Amino acid sequence: MIDFSATLVPENGLAAARAIRPPRLPDEPLWQGLVELHRGRTGAGEQQDAALSPAVVGAYGISPSDTLTRAAGEAVERFALYPVPGEGEVARLHDLGARALDPAAPGTRLAAAETSRRPLRWYPARWLGSGAHVQVPAGLVDYPARAEDADGFDPSPSGAASGGTREQALRSALLEVIERDAFLTAWFHELPLVRLDADHLVSRSPDPHSPGVRRLRQALGAARALGLLPVLARVPTHVPGVVCTVGIIVDAVDGRPLASVGASASDDPATSAVKALQEALQIRSALRLVHRTHPARHPSRRPRGDLERAQYFTSPDGVRAVEHWVATFTAAGAAEPDTPAAVTVAGLLDALDRQGVRPVAVDLTHRLPDPIRAMGWHAVKVIPVGMQPLRMDDGLEFTWHPQRLEAARARFGVGQDPALADPEPHPLI
Description:
4-stranded antiparallel β-sheet, alpha+beta, 34% helix
């Protein structure tokens, strides 16, 4: 049985240290969980001189237990993304033939074209639709990836998830890639989203004591206690039963503006809303930290990672980009569904298949320490073949998926031409 507290005990091999901190007004309105991953996996050098180190996991919540649960889950999935020495088969794509995923194929668009012509490290995976075996490059799985595996790829933690069963982990991972695809598509096309009346959602809920509604009420109160005015809006997913919410907070630190943005997809409207708001509050804290420790006079409009992206969204240009988008949002429309219907892995896969999407899953459970696996933890990563992935490095042209973006423009009836557009960097960190 999973024990969230024991998951983070250093003797169990996953975490080197952890801290669960109470709200600290006026800076931190929520409980804050920080976990430093075990250095035996991450390497001591990765811990140094980084405001947003991949070896340090953060999770915010409305209570100590909520924060601990989120921090443990995040730590498990991040630990599983670190490469293991000696793992994988090194070969060229043409040597593997049909049993390998071509990462640069037009319908995939997950790597630069030259990657298909050189030796790569490959891991075993499965096509989720058919269950057939397939080999995938390490550059699509590991985060952070080794330099030789990262070359020509855009390594990302997106699509990784943990859970008490493989099915739970897989469901969470699919919801995350659906969220990233929906958000980045909407951001690229500057889609005028429909605002969410969070107070209406809380007051009219058929179950006002449900965990999602209770957490949303508390998170709204925490944000407003600081004088923050969060904007929540719905992002279309075109996946029946899945609600995606974006949470946006425009604020300032030391007189400098910042714009923090979070997003979350769920089959429960209140849970989607509160997770998006919690993410926005967590990113707000990260932006304030970056402003204090790594300020940039002229932030790059082509950020190469989370630090440069954070610097951009503590700049007037980044804030203007977010405010410009929010100004297009429309007033709340139809009421939220009264009773959310749980979505299953099979249901998600059916919906994606109808869109021509064929995700791949890599099981990473074997990378977890023995005591963590013995508790029942599982970890997976879903590779979003046919979807718009999360972009980490905006200098890489291949990380926009033209076919997916054009299909979305046709669905929306509005948007930018993928061949001509030069969008602002997205704000997800």
